[in-house]
């Protein structure tokens, strides 16, 4: 039975990540059909939750508090610069990561965990089929790629919520976009997409590893899914802090008011 200590778990995840990186580019690339299946299932399950959550968070907590603050100062036209920071840098990748972990990560972990407890993974190895290449690689590539795509959807949905806030407060839409694009830079968008890709890679590796190391029958599958979600959410928080600090330290221009 595989070890369950924290260091053993982290080491297993790192080892799995290295195997995925190697086998995703090393011939034969036989995971194409499974990749297509995973892409369709992931898009179908995650697109609507990301759009609705991004819109709700942008219009709700962020919109109400930000608009009230800027109205108090008589600077409602500066709402665009605030939303550039709120949506592009923070909310969009964070919402994407939470949805991917809660919806897609749990499904991946449950699927692989069920296969593991039914000895399907062992059967694949007996047949000479590499489970990492055939099962893990397409899932990791799917989660990383779709996470980047969903980040774009989250940004657009967040801006839709912001526009509703602007209209609700009787502010100028043109002034909103003027301040938004004055603050927005290609670096901000690139960092948002990269952060989403990092989130996706970590979530996929964590959930795949927990699924492949499941033991204890159906109850073990439930435990693995719960542990995978908790680890993924903790990783999301850690990545958000480290990534943001590194980004601001290496690009001080992002901290300057524009």
Automatic annotation (TrEMBL):
The chain crosses the membrane at residues 46-71, 91-114, 135-156, 162-184, 196-216, 228-249. It comes from Paraconexibacter antarcticus. This is ABC transporter permease. The keyword Transmembrane helix applies. The lineage of its organism: Bacteria, Bacillati, Actinomycetota, Thermoleophilia, Solirubrobacterales. InterPro entries: Permease_MalE. Keywords: Membrane, Transmembrane, Transmembrane helix.
């Amino acid at each position: 039975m595989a070890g369950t200590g924290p260091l053993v778990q982290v080491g297993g995840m790192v080892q799995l990540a290295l195997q995925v990186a190697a086998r995703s580019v090393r011939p034969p690339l036989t995971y194409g059909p499974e990749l297509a299946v995973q892409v369709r299932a992931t898009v179908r399950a995650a697109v609507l939750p990301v759009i609705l959550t991004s819109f709700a968070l942008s219009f709700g907590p962020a919109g109400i508090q930000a608009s009230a603050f800027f109205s108090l100062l008589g600077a409602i036209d500066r709402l665009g610069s605030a939303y550039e920071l709120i949506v592009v840098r923070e909310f969009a990748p964070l919402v994407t990561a939470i949805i991917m972990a809660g919806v897609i990560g749990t499904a991946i972990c449950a699927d692989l965990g069920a296969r593991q407890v039914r000895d399907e993974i062992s059967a694949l190895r007996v047949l000479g089929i590499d489970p990492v290449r055939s099962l893990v690689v397409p899932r990791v590539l799917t989660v990383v790629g779709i996470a980047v795509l969903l980040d774009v959807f989250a940004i657009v949905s967040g801006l839709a919520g912001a526009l509703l806030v602007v209209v609700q407060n009787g502010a100028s839409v043109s002034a909103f976009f003027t301040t938004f694009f004055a603050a927005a830079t290609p670096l901000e968008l690139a960092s948002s997409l990269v952060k989403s890709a990092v989130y996706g890679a970590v979530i996929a590796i964590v959930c795949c590893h927990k699924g492949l190391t499941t033991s204890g029958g159906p109850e073990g599958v439930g435990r693995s899914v719960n542990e995978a979600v908790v680890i993924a959410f903790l990783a999301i928080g850690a990545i958000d802090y480290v990534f943001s600090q590194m980004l601001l330290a290496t690009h001080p221009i992002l901290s300057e008011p524009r």
